[in-house]
Amino acid sequence: MKAVLVTALSPDLSGVELAEVERPRGEVVVRMRAASLNYPDLLMTRGEYQFKPEPPFIAGLEMAGEVVEAAPGSGFAVGDRVRGGAKTGAFAEYVALPASALRHVPEGMDFPAAAAMGAAYHTAYVALVEIGGLQPGQTVLVHGASGGVGLAACDLARALGARVIAASHREDKLEMLRAVARPDAAILNTGRFREDIARLTDGRLCDLVFDPVGGDVFDESTRCVTFGGKLLVIGFVSGRIPEIAVNIPLIKGFSVVGVRAGEYARRFPERGEHVARAIDTLASEGQIAPHVDGKLPLTSWREAFERMERGDIVGKLVLEP
């Protein structure tokens, strides 16, 4: 089968190729119909993600497709439409996974949307609901809102009754962001954006700040959290891991909380299952829907990675066999 194989870690994808590899074997084997790109996929090709697999490995966190082989007692049957994944292996024509790593695709959802839902919405739900304690009527500031995780956070927060302020560092994305994310407001998060937040919230500021960006965005966000609020640290796509003097959250009365959604589910499996069920329910009811910006063939994996790195997308890119 064809697969996107990382043969060596490199800063420029030079250690990645489309290769012919053996079809995998496992408890459940799925014919991949759509595989969604996530920023950790790019970081792993460089050895810059917290999980550092040794080459060679097949890239790709998540996918959706049809079951072609299933062990007795797995809970799946040939022909089932499923979504799921692991830390690697999704960017291939066939993917072998344990049954515990798969879920049935929600009714009415196509394969690209199902592939795009998993990691992004799981991260958003763990951050906003499980850790953030989101309540209807609260104000949520979402940074990196045009990315897959940020857009999922906007979608989920809106579905749960929050007031959403979507933020991006690119002015050319704001109009599309307004159309796709449908936030209550959209702002540029470059420079001193606290004044915009204060104006939009009548000075109350934000109950939750969802930050996958870090760097200068984090620094300014410490001025945007209301007393008793939470600044949720999702990642550092800006490239700079910020630091904070602890007297700032002390005086301002807010919490800085790190979010590792995958680790959360591993440590608290019953909560992880609850999160997955809640996301499936919201999707089945039509309350949330992943936005797929584009679909490319597996042979165009490099173009997909490069577009994601440049930030030329709103939502998710999907690879198809």
From TrEMBL:
Molecular function in Gene Ontology: quinone reductase (NADPH) activity
Keywords for the protein's UniProt record, in alphabetical order: Oxidoreductase
InterPro entries hit by this protein: ADH-like_C (IPR013149), ADH-like_N (IPR013154), ER (IPR020843), GroES-like_sf (IPR011032), NAD(P)-bd_dom_sf (IPR036291), Zn-ADH-like_protein (IPR051397)
Cross-referenced SUPFAM superfamilies: GroES-like, NAD(P)-binding Rossmann-fold domains
Enoyl reductase (ER) domain: residues covered: 11-319
Enzyme Commission number(s) of this protein: 1.6.5.5
Keyword presence, Oxidoreductase: yes
Protein name stated in the entry: NADPH2:quinone reductase
Originating species: Qipengyuania citrea
